[in-house]
Write a structure and sequence with these properties.
alpha+beta; Nucleotidyltransferase, domain 5; 2 domains; six-stranded mixed β-sheet; 18 strands
């Protein structure tokens, strides 16, 4: 009898349940459930509807069991940095989304207690205004930590709701700027300096651990940060740069150890946990630019049509794709208009600008990566939704001079499944 495994892969715009099994020496998969996701605005803040998300998690499991009643294990991965505060078994709502601006006042106060240069030296995590560190410090300043007994990163929260075991998984914990690059555990000096409750920071658990059961199915920790699982799922012939291309584009390289030198800090590179290695990578704004433009200026167009029209446009001005103005604007079109000197003539010009700007960001990041690694790479592997975009792939090859190996596969789900399959029954 074939052993079947269930990967629940949740991104910022959608989630999917994928069943996997080994057959004839290969990993076979079938998507059995897909659902939408997205931020909601409540009381002036961007939040996640976590109860609805959990409803989709359980509905998808039921659908998977209906097709494959012999599933032996499951695991959940999501984006990083966000969490649910807990008071015992009760949640503290809302669950804020990382694109919310609530950390703006907390960041300078946090840096007054421990400068970013020291934070980077200790953690190797790039500055992002939404890092878990700043979110938790903002919670402290506003009194939200009163009576709080734990905070659970989203995949660990969802698995806790399934099996009743609350844990902190290593790869996702590293995304938040609180884990020591040296020890691989929460850094007590950072926690002490910021005045955060030490009881909130237990020993971290690693991918591959079984933490409980749900309806007779083992609940296993994968690399619960989706990029951590995606890197595990990339079939690379060598250790080459990768781009996990989705709402964000994560461009990086596997390294033996974290790189926390002054150059890495200057160029804002991150060192995040992998499965037995370090992920030296950088966040690039990614398909967020394109998705928001589409929602605003041509919601009826398919992405295939958008890509074809962008390829035919002659508009060549570009923007800094990573500029703060594009992180969470009320109007993405207005954000582009404000950054450009020549107003685009039609919708295709906006998309051509977005794709070219992303490709230039990839080139810049690859140049920085080669400086840090001390070597030149001939290829870059691209997985995720962006791997299907022939125009962006062509621009990336043209601008970077690298051979693009585009793998339009569900790399995150594959990595999630591979980790589960290594666990003994």
């Amino acid at each position: 009898m074939k052993k079947r495994y269930l990967a629940i892969d949740i991104g910022a715009s959608s989630g999917r349940h994928i069943v996997g099994w080994e057959e004839d020496g290969a990993l076979r998969t079938e998507e059995v459930y897909r659902f939408p996701n997205g931020v909601t605005r409540a009381d002036g803040h961007l939040t996640w509807d976590i109860p609805a998300l959990f409803g989709h998690v359980t509905a998808g499991i039921e659908k998977a069991l209906g097709a494959y009643p012999d599933i032996v294990s499951l695991s959940i991965d999501t984006w990083g940095v966000d969490y649910v505060l807990m008071r015992g078994s009760e949640e503290v709502w809302p669950c804020y989304a990382y694109r919310d601006d609530r950390t703006a006042e907390a960041i300078p106060q946090a840096h007054a207690l421990m400068p970013f240069s020291e934070l980077y030296r200790r953690t190797g995590i790039q500055f992002q205004p939404f890092n878990t560190l700043y979110q938790l410090f903002a919670d402290k300043l506003t009194g939200r930590l009163e009576g709080v007994t734990d905070f659970l990163m989203l995949p660990c929260y969802l698995m806790y709701k399934l099996c009743g075991t609350a844990v902190h998984e290593y790869t996702n914990a590293t995304t938040g700027g609180l884990v020591s690059a040296e020890s691989g555990e929460y850094d007590p000096d950072i926690i002490r300096s910021l005045g955060l409750p030490p009881k909130l920071f237990p020993k971290l658990r690693k991918p591959g651990e079984v933490i409980g059961e749900y309806r007779g199915i083992r609940v296993v920790l994968c690399a619960t940060h989706d990029t951590g699982s995606a890197v595990e799922g990339i079939p690379m012939d060598e250790n080459a740069p990768y781009i996990s291309s989705g709402t964000w584009s994560l461009l990086g390289l596997k390294t033996d150890r974290p790189l926390t030198d002054a150059r890495s800090e200057k160029f804002n590179w991150s060192n995040e946990g992998g499965v037995g290695y370090n992920r030296y990578q950088k966040n690039i704004m990614g398909m967020w630019l394109v998705n928001r433009l589409r929602d605003e200026i041509c919601p009826g167009k398919s992405f295939g049509e958008i890509v074809r029209e962008a390829a035919q446009s002659s508009y060549d001005e570009t923007v800094d794709a990573n500029a703060p103005a594009f992180l969470s604007p009320e109007s993405m079109k207005a954000a582009f208009d404000g950054a450009l000197t020549a107003r685009p003539g039609d919708t295709s010009d906006y998309f051509r600008c977005a794709y070219r700007s992303l490709a230039l960001s990839y080139r810049s990041a690859l140049e920085e990566l080669e400086q840090a690694a001390g070597k030149t790479f001939g290829r870059v592997y691209i997985v995720g939704g962006g791997a299907k975009n022939d125009f962006l792939n062509r621009l990336t090859e043209e601008f970077s001079g690298k051979k693009v190996i585009a793998l339009p596969i569900e790399a995150t789900a594959l990595g999630n499944l591979k980790i589960q399959m290594k666990v003994d029954p």
